[in-house]
Amino acid sequence: SKSITIALAGNPNSGKTTLFNALTGAKHSVGNWPGVTVEKKEGKFIHNSNEIIAVDLPGTYSLSPYSLEEMIARNYIVNESPEVVINIVDASNIERNLYLSMQLIELGKPVVIALNMMDIAERRGHKIDHNKLSQALGVPVVPIVATQKKGLKELLDAAVDIVRGKIKYNPNRVDYGKEIEDKIQKTKAMIKDKSNIAKYDLRWLAIKVIEEDEAVLDLLNMKDKFSAENEVAVTNEDAFENDFEAIIADRRYSYITSILSKVVKKPDSKVLTTS
Ligand code: GDP
Ligand code: MG
Ligand code: K
């Protein structure tokens, strides 16, 4: 059967290189992303007789249009359509890492979370219920220790099972609250017939329009702030009072906090605190 391309995405220092090397061994090539001097690594290996191509994306905290690395990561996932994204999450720093996860999931391509550094989290006495986290997010979550090559088989099994349709991929969406959700619906209706958007997730595009994401406004020919379309999505009255990008970021954080309060227990407090 056809080879499977896996993109590895995660925060800097989450263990991406360690995982990439553990998976691909010495068999990988190092180059640059087209047109820029950001390193691109690609490697091939076999898992259960599936040929896997792993592509290491730049380490990022977000997928905003403001950074070259973040644009490389998000453009690769959208334009090159890897069959699955493995999102490496540092379990000892889970709140911050999940902020990227929410954005990766929102892109619409299948995501499997590799919950790395479980040894550190355990040493600190953090109890993380990965099954509950998986249920809450609606995506597979596999605990791993990349430095010890622990959990890698289970991680690859989950990734392959998603690609082969053995696991149904059905992520839960962040609820951005009535005002933003109404805006998302209106914006989706407004942009759905645009010609060049087939490969994008419509909800993701709508959220980016509301955030006034430059790259997406450009793609949709919506950069003219005073166009009728923009009036609906971006520059309506509210926009003068509200910074929707900030509100959306805030809702993502509260969503993560509320999930983690049920999933993580730390020694000095019964539930997770945000401090
Ligand atoms: P990257 O920036 O995401 O590529 O992260 P690296 O792979 O370079 O890892 C950052 C540091 O964390 C290195 O010192 C790794 O050896 C270490 N590391 C990676 N995974 C684990 C893990 O599961 N457990 C522990 N204890 N350390 C890890
Ligand atoms: Mg690295
Ligand atoms: K953002």
Automatic annotation (TrEMBL):
It comes from the Bacteria. It is found in: Cell inner membrane; Cell membrane. GTP binds at residues 10-17, 35-39, 56-59, 116-119, 145-147. Mg(2+) 2 binds at A22, T24, G25. Residues 3-165 form the FeoB-type G domain. Mg(2+) 1 binds at N21. Belongs to the TRAFAC class TrmE-Era-EngA-EngB-Septin-like GTPase superfamily. FeoB GTPase (TC 9.A.8) family. Probable transporter of a GTP-driven Fe(2+) uptake system. This is Ferrous iron transport protein B.
